[in-house]
Amino acid sequence: MKSVPFVLLSVVICTAAVGCGQSPTNSVSAEATVATAPHTHESWWCSEHGVPEEVCAQCSEKIARQFKAKGDWCQKHDRPESQCFVCHPEFEAKFVALYEAKYGKQPPKPE
User: Fold this and answer.
1) 3-state SS, residue 37
2) What is the Cα gyration radius of the chain?
3) 83 vs 4, 35, 38, 107, 108, CA distance in Å?
4) Using one digit for the tens of pLDDT, what is the confidence trace for 44-81?
5) Is 17 helix (H, G, I), strand (E, B) or coil?
6) Into how many domains does the chain fold?
7) How far apart are CA 46 and CA 59, in angstroms?
8) Is residue 87 part of a domain?
9) Which residues have a Cβ under 8 Å from the Cβ of 50 and sit 6 or more positions away?
């Protein structure tokens, strides 16, 4: 009689260990899919860098050359000085205000 609970416990443990047969790739969350989705540059806002796409020098070499020609470049962080939130965190507020004015909410945090 003592072996019945042991057998039931063994069956439960084996069933839990085997799972329902789904592979881990079938259970990828929507968040993980969004995080790995390629940046399309088709929207107004560059969520990767926290600025409008039209001035994102980190996504466009042409725009980067324009900033460099004006002398607006942070050599240390390889981006326009006017967009270097590492050296000048206060500059981020200007871009956040642009996003809030257009969408009425906070922008996604740049990566």
Assistant:
1) coil
2) 25
3) 69, 23, 22, 15, 16
4) 999 999 999 999 999 999 999 999 999 999 999 999 99
5) helix
6) 1
7) 8
8) yes
9) 85, 92, 95, 96, 107, 109, 110
Predicted confidence at residue 23, as pLDDT, reads 43
d(CA 108, CA 71): 28
Q: In angstroms, rounded to a whole number, what is the distance separating the alpha carbons of residues 91 and 51?
A: 11
Q: Is residue 8 part of a domain?
A: no
What's the CA gap between 42 and 69, in Å, rounded? 26
Please name the helix (run of DSSP H) or strand (run of DSSP E) that holds residue 5, with its range, or none. helix 3-18
Distance of CA 38 to CAs 58, 77, 86, 96, 103, Å? 15, 22, 24, 23, 23
pTM above 0.85, yes or no: no
Cβ-contact 74, 87 below 8 angstroms: yes
Beta strand ranges found along 9-107 (DSSP E): 45-46, 51-52
pLDDT for 111 beyond 90: no
Give the structural domain span for 65: 40-111
